[in-house]
Amino acid sequence: MEWFNGPADVETEFNSLAYRRSLRDKLSLTALLQKNLHTTITMSEYSGEAKYRPKRYQSIGKLFKKRVPIISWLPKYDADQAVSDLIAGVTVGLTVMPQGLAYATLAGLEPQYGLYSAFAGCIVYTVFGSCKDITIGPTALMSLMTYQQVFNRNADYAVLLCFLSGILQFIMGSLKLGVLIDFISIPVTVGFTSATSVIIAVSQLKGLLGLKFESSNFLDCLLKVYQNIGNYRANDTILGVTSIIILLMLRKVKDIKLFGPNGKPTNKQRTIMKGLWLLSISRNALIVVACSIISYWCYRPNAEPYVTLIGKVRSGLPPLKFPPFGTEINGTPVSFINMCWDLGSSIILVPVIAVLGNVAIAKAFASGNSVDATQELYCLGVCNLLGSFVSSMPVTGSFSRSAVNHASGVRTPMGGLYTGILIILSLSLLTPYFYFIPKAALAAVIISAVIFMIEYEIVKPMWKSSRKDLIPTFATFVLCLGIGVELGILVGVGINIMLLLIPSARPFLHIEMKKLRTGLDYLLVTPENSLYFPAVDFMRAKTDRAAVKMGQSKLPVVVDCKHILDADFTAAKGIAGLIMDFKRRKQPLCFYNPRKSVLAVLQGVCVDEIVHCFTYDELEQTLNDINCSGNPAELKDIVHTTSQQSHETPLLNRRQH
């Protein structure tokens, strides 16, 4: 329908008979007066004398549905979806229970903290999550970064870090700062995740071999493993190594394919493959249960256990309370400010890394659909924020559990609710039996999971496509191992940004001799990047040098601006100096095919002294005029412009180039 802009529009349209008929059928007089007063009403929203909803309320409603996605899909939730989500939720729950216990010990916390972190994130993501496949909970990476803050401290630091991470993620979502994550490139991410995988695997050698020591970092752990290797426990080692072998074998079981005589699997074969798949994804729970049964059978109350056990796990749900804004270490009170000071850069790095992983998982399971990074920021922020009230450590999306969730046929985010309920039941009913879980079994679960995060296979394609990207990759990898993951990733990002800035500071200049159709020689200089202040002196010096040596201080020099998309004031001052250099040598200088925005910046400094043209014909005419005049100093007004031709269009004729 037509939109009114005022009384004049009303009068013009009302004089039309056709309009009067349509108006009588579709709008009442009240609607017409409201429309004349600039009230926004669409035909679909108004019928007869029905009430309409102002646009601002529609926007608020859409925003609320966007930020709380459960409002959109819950009214359409049916029994079929509930069954699929229940199966997926229980399957993921069986996976996350042993992983949660293992990741809590990796973070230097008591095992129950892993389960606290597992149920809170799953339930919150059901309400605010935008991707049905993602499962929120403890991960190896978050556990490692938490361990560095908990070491020689207490669990209060982990819970406070979770709270502060949630606050920062929520603020980033409110300010739409998800773009900051884009500065962590794939090469840096590869080096970071590979290094953390190695660190995690090495840290689990202590539990795998039954050793007892404390270590602060990767090198310290490696050294102490070497020093204490003679004290290894054979039972722990045999159990741990056997568990790893079985876990790796079960990981491949799901890839077994069966086919009938006609090349397609029969119903029986499909059932067998489904059973093998279920066996494969439940491998962590099966190994932990089997090892726990063995240790229970071998347990004697008054004798030393055959294998090292995780010991007593606190039963029941965690108390609902505010995060700790102060704590005590060895009887010494520590204030909130001092705790934040101790946490240092992890307050920023932990939430950023968490969001990076969560968005990457969402993109992997988006099936080509766009991912709302802002919503993921909001959601992850709420998960950590509310999780800190139930003693959770920092959480993010788990790729392995999300893959299990996807393969289990989850239909909506409601699967996370069923997972959370299962974890709550385990905290209430199963914690007495967690006492008999061997540490070697948990170490085997972690090692068999993280070794596949070492992305060594990406080095070969990176070497073939862009070798310079190997610099931040290996730098991040080595520095994360040597000085810590936080400083390592910061230095890696810094190196990557430097590699991005180098082309702006030292752009490649393509310089070659050209000849016009009339036979006139000229020197063509083509910068391969935009002009900003770091590059202006370099470009000026190199162009001057080429004009003197190759152009013999007399040949016309043409600067092809096709790649110059932008310029700043400092660059314009440098170009003004370049023009003056050429003017002193009485050597012609012409700027070819500049964008109007770039030209405006240059002319703002160079006034009218810049000679430019937009097409090859104009360039040829300009250079011929220069050659005929014999006095380049008087050519500042020889500017051939064509107002009808867009400055965005490339040359009309480049056969000579």
From TrEMBL:
The chain crosses the membrane at residues 155-172, 179-202, 276-297, 343-365, 377-395, 415-435, 440-459, 471-502. Pfam families: Sulfate_transp (PF00916). GO terms for biological process: transmembrane transport. CDD domains: STAS_SulP_like_sulfate_transporter. Residues 84-474 form the SLC26A/SulP transporter domain. It is found in: Membrane. GO terms for cellular component: membrane. Keywords: Membrane, Transmembrane, Transmembrane helix. It is a multi-pass membrane protein. It comes from the Eukaryota. PANTHER family: SULFATE TRANSPORTER (PTHR11814). This is SLC26A/SulP transporter domain-containing protein. The lineage of its organism: Eukaryota, Metazoa, Ecdysozoa, Arthropoda, Hexapoda.
